[in-house]
Write a sequence for this structure.
């Protein structure tokens, strides 16, 4: 079952999000977790969260937001984070979460959904090649002084 993340999900969500951060080798701490959790649970914040629940346990999460696409004068959905518990991979949970976002895209009249992944994430890239177009764009991040 796919549903919105709820306040009762916090502990399980923390475990999954820490797994996501570890996969990308990004340091994680309580301040970041609390901030993101507050954003997800604030109806007025742009970041939203969904989860895949199996037998009462959350085994997959996705964070997304609506964002403008200036070159088309429309809004799109942007998938920020997607993570499935390693013990539950191979069950097409990531695909199901993305399919759910596609439904949200249609109901919100978004002009598509975009996301990024690291070029070394071979498992994800295999799925993405099946369901999405490679835009050919390369992501840059401004250097800090």
């Amino acid at each position: 079952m796919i549903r919105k993340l709820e306040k009762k999900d916090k502990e399980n969500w923390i475990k999954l999000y820490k797994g996501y951060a570890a996969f990308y080798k990004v340091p994680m701490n309580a301040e970041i977790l609390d901030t993101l959790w507050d954003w997800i649970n604030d109806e007025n914040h742009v970041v939203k969260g969904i989860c895949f629940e199996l037998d009462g346990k959350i085994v997959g999460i996705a964070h997304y937001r609506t964002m403008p696409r200036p070159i088309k004068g429309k809004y799109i959905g942007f998938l920020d984070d997607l993570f499935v518990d390693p013990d539950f991979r191979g069950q097409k949970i990531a695909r199901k979460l993305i399919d759910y976002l596609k439904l949200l895209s249609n109901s919100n009249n978004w002009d598509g959904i975009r996301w990024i992944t690291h070029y070394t994430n071979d498992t994800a890239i295999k799925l993405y090649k099946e369901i999405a177009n490679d835009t050919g764009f390369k992501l840059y991040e401004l250097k800090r002084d």
Q: What stands out?
A: The two ends are 45 Å apart (CA to CA). Residues 2-131 form a domain with the Aminopeptidase fold (CATH 3.40.630.30).
